[in-house]
Amino acid sequence: MTTPVSQLDYQDRVVVISGGSSGIGLGISRHLAALGAQLVIIGRTQSKLDHAVAQISAAGGRAIAYAVDVRESAKLAEHMADCKSRFGGIDVVIAAAAGNFFVPAERMSANAFKTVVEIDLVGTFNLFAAAFPALNKPGAAMLAITAPQAQRPMANQAHACAAKAGIDMLVKCLAMEWGAQGIRVNAVSPGPIAGTEGLTRLSATPEVERFVRDATALKHFGEVGDIAQAAAFLCSSQAGYVTGTVLDCDGGMRHGNFVSP
């Protein structure tokens, strides 16, 4: 018989999370810190990192931060080596850094397409590869944050759809390659989450916002906490036989009729 994810799963575990200073990433950071984990937050903006660390510390949690872009593989490797030296190893790695914007493909520059693919897809690989030598294995868990665009084509999202589809397959490939070493690799695919920048961009007008909400089977937006709890489960011992899986946490949006009005 299993028990719910609790402090027994995360007390003193070292969790590295990119994009952990805002939005869904920050929600995951705060949730895991509350469960007793030592958070290592990666992001590009020092002020956001400082604010995230302060929030976690004020709530009684533990966090440090590294200001680094996930596209900078060499710097990531240096920071992950420092993590191993400081904490003895890494238990959980979560890739939540992402970039996105809405633009028709014919108006998108090659650099714009490349930027999103590099942040989302290449950045996920860079983080996982940099952390690999520092993992406490067997028993380590890796998690990527993907999106419904990985499976559902969406107008004005060619770059994001391509990047997220790549993440889904990357997760499956790494699960196959690293499973024998006791490393699990999974992903969470969030739907429209209230209060996030992604939903704000997706819902430019009240009419579109209502349409997006109604495109979900549950007819309401999710909360950051929904994704945080899904992430906590997949990276815990409760999901010890789960790997190579993409968990849709989208209120049934993937199965809805999502065609913009």
Automatic annotation (TrEMBL):
Protein name: SDR family oxidoreductase
GO biological process, one term: fatty acid catabolic process
Domain Ketoreductase: 13-196
InterPro entries: DECR2-like, KR_dom, NAD(P)-bd_dom_sf, SDR_fam
NCBIfam families (alphabetical): PRK07576.1 (NF005752)
Pfam families (UniProt xref): adh_short_C2 (PF13561)
Protein family according to the UniProt entry: Belongs to the short-chain dehydrogenases/reductases (SDR) family.
Keyword Cytoplasm: no
Molecular function GO terms recorded: 2,4-dienoyl-CoA reductase (NADPH) activity
Domain of life: Bacteria
Gene3D superfamilies: NAD(P)-binding Rossmann-like Domain (3.40.50.720)
Keyword NADP (UniProt): yes
Swiss-Prot/TrEMBL keywords: NADP, Oxidoreductase
Species annotation: Solimonas terrae
